[in-house]
Structure formats: structure tokens, C-alpha cells
């Protein structure tokens, strides 16, 4: 399954928006993580921020090229 450019843009925008608007406890609720499990919950909080940042390292055209390359390799 290949994502369309619109679907990819939606994913990147959704993660970035959640990163901007969601606090630690809300993220724990969304992911069904116990916020009292501090080490694990804080690790996921940091990973979520990194995910959001990493998705914005590349523009959508570059991300689409990476997905297309994956699809080609998957077929081999």
C-alpha cells in the first residue's frame, strides 16, 4: 500500500498538530500509557517529539520518493 501525497501530508500535519497541542498526560491517555510509569511514559513523550521533528526534516516530495523507493524494494 502506497500513501498518496495527500495522505502523507495529513499524517505529517496530524502528528505536528498533536505535538503542538497535546500535553504529557493527554499523550499518555491517547496511547493508553500509565503516566505514573514515569520512565516509560517520559520515554514515549520524548520519542513523540522526535517523531514530529523528524517528519519535518524532509519536504513532502522527498518523503514520497522514500516511500516509492520502499515500494520498489519491497517488490524485489
| Largest β-sheet summary | none
Mean pLDDT: 94
Helicity range? over 70%
Secondary structure category: mainly alpha
Q: What is the total number of structural domains?
A: 1
Shape: elongated
Q: Distance between termini?
A: 15 Å
Low-confidence stretches: none
**Which sequence of SSEs, written as H and E, runs from N to C?**
HHHH
Radius of gyration: 15 Å
Could you tell me the strand content as a percent range? under 5%
Please give the count of helices.
4
Number of DSSP E strands: 0
Task: Tell me about this structure.
This protein is mostly helical and 76 residues long. It has 4 helices and no strands. The protein is elongated, with a radius of gyration of 15 Å.
List keywords for this structure.
4 helices, mainly alpha, 76 residues
What topology does this entry show?
Elements: H1 5-21, H2 24-31, H3 38-55, H4 60-74
Helix pairs in contact: 1-3
How is this structure best summarized?
By secondary structure, this protein is mostly helical.
Amino acid at each position: 500500500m502506497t500513501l498518496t501525497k495527500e495522505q502523507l501530508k495529513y499524517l505529517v500535519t496530524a502528528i505536528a498538530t498533536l505535538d503542538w497541542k497535546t500535553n504529557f498526560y493527554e499523550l499518555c491517555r491517547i496511547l493508553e500509557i500509565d503516566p505514573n510509569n514515569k520512565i516509560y511514559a517520559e520515554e514515549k513523550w520524548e520519542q513523540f517529539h522526535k517523531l514530529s521533528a523528524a517528519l519535518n526534516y524532509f519536504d513532502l516530495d522527498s518523503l514520497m520518493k522514500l516511500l516509492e523507493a520502499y515500494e520498489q524494494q519491497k517488490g524485489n
